[in-house]
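Page 37, continued from 36.
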């Protein structure tokens, strides 16, 4: 009976500590490889960073447009104008009817005397009203919608208000909001399309860079295959290359976004001040930065997987 030969290189069981040390060693080697080729790495980081910066910037724009539609003091509402000489009781009843609606956040009553005083304060022709004798300005009620109300709620409220006693005109103040919502929707869809395209570009850039790294270490890869290394063990160093390229690109993207925000801060602040609002840019926070880093790393790993799979398949054929 033939005796089974003993394996001269028996498999060693690697515990968690050995697995961590192996990954740490490979990560250090990948970092050294990327650092020694800083010029090439910087070019890859710039390409990946630009690919991440544009869709991320569109995301920040969409977030701030959404905040603008919700938090602006000039949020949508309607104004009711009454016949001259309307009774105060009629104004009070109309105001109470609006205040009882859940979609209304605030109701402001402006009687004829207050309308005249406001016209004198803000209008250049206030003194000309003295010639007319009687006050020709109508009383009005301004109703502001709640933050969770919709444009459909506003239109329903307008139809109810039109049937009120003494109401001559109802003016909806929603045009600016409709435009902002349309712009926000356009930015969202444009961000999704460009995000997908630039994500593909980041993956291809990383795949090309990792492919060059594989070619530079091709002899080492062949030796590893000869001694029985698995595809996972062969791919592992290049996955770290891709992750480092992706993380570096994400850091560059964050720097580009920071510079862009500094450039546009002053004109945006000036524009908002003209509408009586302060500048409160939102979205560029630690959660956004962490998501940007994770996205960059994932795209880098995907690119390295693509490059390693293609090159290892070519080696298997030959």
């Amino acid at each position: 009976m033939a005796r089974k030969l003993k394996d001269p290189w028996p498999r060693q069981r690697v515990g968690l500590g050995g697995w961590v040390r192996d990954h740490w060693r490979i990560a250090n080697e990948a970092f050294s490889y990327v650092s020694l080729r800083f010029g090439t790495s910087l070019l890859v980081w710039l390409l990946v960073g630009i690919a991440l910066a544009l869709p991320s910037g569109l995301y920040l724009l969409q977030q701030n447009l959404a905040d603008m539609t919700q938090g602006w003091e000039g949020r949508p509402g309607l104004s009711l104008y009454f016949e001259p000489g309307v009774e105060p009781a009629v104004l009070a009843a109309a105001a109470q009817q609006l205040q009882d609606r859940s979609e209304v956040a605030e109701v402001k009553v402006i009687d004829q005397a207050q309308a005249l005083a406001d016209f004198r304060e803000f209008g250049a022709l206030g003194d000309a009203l003295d010639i007319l004798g009687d006050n020709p300005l109508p009383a009005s009620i301004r109703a502001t919608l709640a933050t969770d109300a919709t444009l459909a709620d506003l239109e329903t409220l307008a139809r109810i208000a039109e049937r009120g006693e003494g109401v001559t005109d109802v003016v909806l103040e929603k045009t600016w909001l409709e435009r902002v919502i349309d712009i926000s929707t356009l930015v969202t869809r444009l961000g999704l399309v460009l995000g997908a395209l630039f994500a593909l570009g980041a993956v291809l850039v990383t795949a090309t860079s990792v492919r060059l790294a594989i070619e530079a270490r091709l002899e080492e890869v062949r030796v590893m295959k000869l001694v029985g290394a698995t595809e996972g063990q062969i791919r592992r160093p290049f996955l770290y290359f891709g992750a480092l390229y992706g993380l570096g690109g994400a850091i560059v993207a964050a720097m580009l976004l920071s510079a862009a925000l500094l450039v546009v801060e002053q004109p945006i602040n000036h524009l908002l001040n003209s509408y009586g609002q302060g500048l409160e840019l939102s979205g560029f926070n630690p959660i956004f930065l962490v998501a940007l880093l994770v996205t960059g790393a994932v795209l880098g790993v995907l690119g390295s997987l693509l490059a390693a799979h293609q090159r290892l398949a070519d080696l298997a054929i030959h």
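The chain is about 70% helix and 10% strand. Flag for discussion at group meeting. The mean pLDDT is 77.
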